[in-house]
Amino acid sequence: MSEPFTPIREVGEFGLIDRLQAILGEPADPDLIMGIGDDAAVYRLPDQETVHVITSDALLEGVHFDRLMTPMEHLGYKAIAVNVSDVVAMNAEPRYATITLGLPSKISVEMAEAFYRGIRRACEAYGLTLVGGDTTAAHALCISITVVGEARLDEIIFRRGARPGDLLCVTGDLGAAYAGLKILLEERKALKEEGLNYKPDLEPFRYVIQRQLLPQARLDVIRDWRQRGVRPHALIDISDGLASEVHHLCRHSGCGALVHAAAIPVALETRDVADRFAEDVDTYALFGGEDYELLFALPPDQLERLDPLSFNVIGEFLPAEHGVQVQTPEGAVIPLDPAGYQHFRQEEDGEADLLG
Ligand code: ADP
Ligand code: MG
After folding, report:
1. Domain range for 125
2. Was 39 annotated as part of a binding site?
């Protein structure tokens, strides 16, 4: 009998992780507080009060970025920022990073140095130190970073913990990184068609392109919360798109939620991009990934402690039987499709190649 062959596309990224996790089994380590399944793993140190959080994220050429459109210095910054974002999403401070670099022969020493200038800038911005790694030859540029962060155990905020009645809140604005990607893909196409004569005018899209190429982890937000005595019940960063992350919070917390699409903050430039492509900007805001903003469940009695300019209330948590729903700007209430960006699930076109 031949071995079964299930294409990974059939189970998707999260389905695959579930099956691999089942092989590892339940961890028996009493110091492990959170293993697979949150933004970062959490384990206790011998003093019993301090915990470390640990997370890894990779950026691969042709999957996450196109070298034609990505300055090496930006790439270095982004590689650190996306990892710091997962540490921040546990409400912890980043401390140390290691990096594994796979370098194809087309990368020069000078390009690697430019990449490290970006790494250094991000390490300075977020207060962490790169302490080692590994370097190997590869067929395409591969970057994998691990970041360790630190917190007191009682400061950690998980994906679970949201309760019916909590407010669903988000920092910053959404959909801009996806809008930036749309513009960059359009530019790449024009460059390919028109060759070196092509003179791009990216000035009207500065903000969205920056959101795509140079995302920021919201360490500033969790530090501000600490100052104000704010402690959300549940927290996640938005890497795969708002809809997908709302589903994660609800599944882990055993809740439902209602999202008000009209309340989702969207930058003017993001609207301009959606108009340019004759697309619905709500789709960008709900399903566009890589904004790295924070999504959190706030008990209403903490509302007044927050700076009102630093976040938006975009919905509320409900009992589980309500499911996860969205109220469209026209007023209809419909189930919210979780389909954010999932590796292996997308159509194999050029655009999907550069998401996630
Ligand atoms: P995020 O989008 O926050 O980076 P992911 O969706 O990548 O989170 O991962 C979800 C969870 O699955 C995390 O706890 C992560 O550590 C874990 N995970 C991802 N890939 C693997 C793998 N191949 N083996 C074990 N755990 C994994
Ligand atoms: Mg995350």
Report:
1. 52-154
2. yes
